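Q: How would the structure tokens look for this protein?
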Amino acid sequence: MLPFINPQVFPSQLLPLLALHFKNPKASSDTDAILSLALKRFDPENNKNYIFEIPAGGTFRLYNGKLFKRGAKRVKRYECLEISTGKIYLFQPNAEVEYIK
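A: Here is the predicted structure in token form.
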């Protein structure tokens, strides 16, 4: 990836984050929350919210239409209650969701 980490390919704000990521890459770029959030700032069609932006007790919808209520934060992830089944799921803080007001 070294040839691609230059200002002709990526904006200069992303270069330090990309270099840090590729020193020890994760299985997915979304597991690197800092890089994921930085990349999404450059997405012009990004009108979604993130789990960490949803207030505690707030309702949100996933891409598949399922509704959840945001709960407490554990160490790194948020507990969320699926409204229709009552099951608890854990979400990464940078998961993209649609906030239901």
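The chain has a mean pLDDT of 86.

The helical segments are 15-23, 33-40.

Upvote if useful.
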